[in-house]
Design goal:
Elements: H1 3-14, H2 27-36, E1 41-45, H3 50-57, E2 62-66, E3 73-77, H4 88-101
Parallel strand pairs: 1-2
Antiparallel strand pairs: 2-3
Length: 103
Amino acid sequence: MPRLLRDIIEATVNSQPDMDLVECDEAERLELNLHDRAVDVAIVAEGAGLLERLLVANPGLKVVVVGPDGRAAEFVELRRHSLIDPSPRTLVDAIHAALSAHA
C-alpha cells in the first residue's frame, strides 16, 4: 500500500474516539495480533490469499481490502443466516434473497 494512502487511513482511524489502530507491516504479525487483541475490523492491502486466511481463521472479522493504487476498496465479511425451516422452498428463497441483495 502506498505510504500516502497508509498515512490517510491512519489519520482517519486515529481521529475516531471509538477506534484504535494496530499497525502491522507483515501479514503474519497481523494474523497473530488478531488473536491477541479484540480486533473487529482489519484494513489490508490487496494480497495473495491474505483475505481468505484472515476470514477462515477469524470468521467474525470484517476486512477492508484496499486496491493497489488506493482507488478502490471492498468491505468483506462472512455472514451466517439461520434457516429455521431447512425445507427445499426455504433454501431456494434464501439463495434468491442473497443473490438479489448483491445485484
